[in-house]
Amino acid sequence: MVVRISNLRKRFDKNEVLRGVSIEVPDGKVIGLIGSSGAGKSTLLRCTNFLEPPDSGTLEFDGNVVDTTHASKQQVQELRRQTAMVFQNFNLYKLNTATENIELALTHAKHYAPKKAHETSLEFLNKVGLHAKRNSFPDQLSGGQQQRVALARAAVLRPKLMLLDEPTSALDPENIGEVLKVIKNLADEGQSMLIASHEMNFLRRICDHVVFMDQGVVKEEGSADQIFNHPKEDRTRQFLSGVTPQEEA
Where do the ABC transporter domain residues begin and end (predicted)? Predict the structure, then answer.
């Protein structure tokens, strides 16, 4: 099964943030999105599950093609059922425990019975190393622990595609490693992922394919080795070396 994002466009007022972006995510593969802030990475992720409705383009899951210009409510709901998103700032329910945050995802999205939802939630908390924190509320957890709960909440839905938007950007350096370990474990289990991140060394190790975005377009894509070690485009090399191109006069 391949997830195909084709010719996706999105404009905010006069600013065209996505200008015909096309990406494929083969089953069980991890695709990295890199690029400067404002390149369109987060908008692409949000458009893929209609948190931001695209202006045009198509999305294909399991051979079902959705024209985003005319997507029905039912089609949008089905797309959302096949994706799960992990945000920069966790987006946990503050008044619910770690276990309850995961249970709510299962009872609402998968219609699990309460007992099964509880048992499955504990299983996934154990997978991310947080069984001991099962009764803790978000404000009792570190940033890294909150993000691990968010990852468990996404993974428990067994989505066709997991969307990760800068999952470590809000974390202290000491918490980044524990979150990256969970993401690596999910990848090793065959979870398809589309990850926007500035953790270049991590993406180099985990990604099957890397896409460099610049000003709303795909500037270059290829294997992790090709993009990080042998980029073809000048703009890709500039980005990876930390050089910002001078503005034209």
Answer: 3-240
* Residue 115 to residue 120: CA distance in whole angstroms: 9
How far, rounded to the nearest angstrom, does the alpha carbon of residue 141 sit from its chain's CA centroid? 22
> In this structure, how many other beta carbons lie within 10 angstroms of the beta carbon of residue 72?
10
The tokens describing 90, both together, are: 């966790």
Task: Single out the residue of 228, 173, 218, 163 nearest to residue 196, CA to CA.
Answer: 163
Strands lying side by side in the sheet with 217-222: 83-86, 161-165, 193-196, 30-34, 209-214, 217-222
The percent of the chain in helix, strand and coil, each rounded to the nearest 5, is: 40, 25, 35
CA gap 49, 78 in Å, rounded: 9
Tens of pLDDT, residue by residue over 110-131, are 999 999 999 999 999 999 999 9
Which residue from 151, 192, 160 is spatially nearest to 80, judged by alpha carbons? 160
Identify the structural domains of the chain with CATH numbers, from first to last. Answer: 3-242 (3.40.50.300)
Please state whether beta strands 2-12 and 56-61 pair in parallel, antiparallel, or not at all (unpaired). antiparallel
Contact 50, 11 (CB under 8 A): no
pLDDT digits over 162-202, tens only? 999 999 988 988 889 999 999 999 999 999 999 999 999 89
